[in-house]
Amino acid sequence: MDSVYALALGYLLGSVPFGLILTRLFDAGDLRQIGSGNIGATNVLRTGRKGLAASTLLLDGAKGFLAVWLAWRWWPEVAGLAALGAVLGHCFPLWLGFKGGKGVATTLGVTLALGWQIGAAYAVTWLVMLALTRISSLSGMTAAVAAPVAAWLLGRAELVPVLAGIAALVIVLHRANIARLRAGTEPRVGAKG
Fold first, then answer.
1. CA nearest 118: which of 68, 76, 70?
2. At what angle do helices 50-74 and 18-25 cross, to 10 degrees?
């Protein structure tokens, strides 16, 4: 039952749609009708409200961190399932017809909670790729792949299956981005039009 509790806790916390909540609170429009229609920080940035985008990034990461932190306290053997649940909740929130974000910021939060070194590897990979390419989707996918690799290199083999599953989910949810990357039409952060 602990596995079910950890997964459910993660899902419920992960499914809080902070991007949608913030854009509504600050009258920035219905996020689901803007850009990609996703509820994550990258799409919030398309509203032109950088502060809201940064807040969404922090809150989406925080909900993932909190889910894992609580699970470590209550069910330490299955805390990884809370990480998976948080990302699933963000990507497929029940309250929004299972249409959420792509899990990049929430994955940052869960990796930091699972092990700060893993989270640091995720964050550094994300930031370096973003600095080099200015492509948010590529940065997020690369960071997601870096997390299970970092866990394995750090001797945290028990986390590799969950982190690999999260990485696979992040990549699958970026299918349209991958097609645009191949076509050379994926937008860059800060690009006009």
1. 68
2. 140
On average, the pLDDT of the chain sits at: 91
DSSP string over 122-136? HHHHHHHHHHHH--H
Interhelix angle 104-114/136-153, rounded to 10 degrees, is 20
- Condensed to tens digits (0 to 9), the pLDDT of residues 100-145 reads 899 999 999 999 999 999 999 999 999 999 999 999 899 999 999 9
> Which one, of 11, 18, 58, 52, lies nearest residue 38 by Cα?
18
Question: Cβ(34)–Cβ(46) under 8 Å?
Answer: yes
Residue type, 118: I
Element (H, E) at 41: helix 41-45
Please indicate, yes or no, whether the overall pTM of this predicted structure exceeds 0.85: yes
Q: Which residues are CB-contacts of 99 (< 8 A; sequence separation ≥ 6)? A: 32, 37, 92, 93
Any idea what the Cα angle at residue 129 is, between residues 126 and 135, rounded to 5°? 100
Is the distance from CB of 140 to CB of 104 less than 8 angstroms? Answer: yes
